[in-house]
Specification:
- Helices cover 30% and strands 23% of the residues.
- With 115 residues, the chain is an alpha+beta fold.
- It starts with 5 loop residues before the first helix and ends in a 7-residue tail after the last strand.
Amino acid sequence: MPKRFLPVLALLALAPPAAAQPQALQPHNIYASLDPDAPDQATLRRVQGALTRCGIPNEQDASLAYVGLREGFYLVISGPHASAAVAAAELARARGCGVEGYTRMARRRPGVMED
């Protein structure tokens, strides 16, 4: 092997594997932040029902399942979205269906079970 390729191979050997590198935070929309010990079931049904009728996929989850979000809340959340513009467009659709929300940068923690 020519000597000029050895430094490149050495650098590749020292680089961490792609799977070990942290994933970037992505936009997520939050439509309800509730008490995790006693989430208001009526609010959950109203918010999720309106989002579903608008064609907005969403789920209930604990905020501790996400890097970038403050722990201690039970959420109605959507995402991750490809960009802030996509998240903003979804928020506008949700407002048209009577649901307010906001965008936060986050990523799901690996290995945390969904609620």
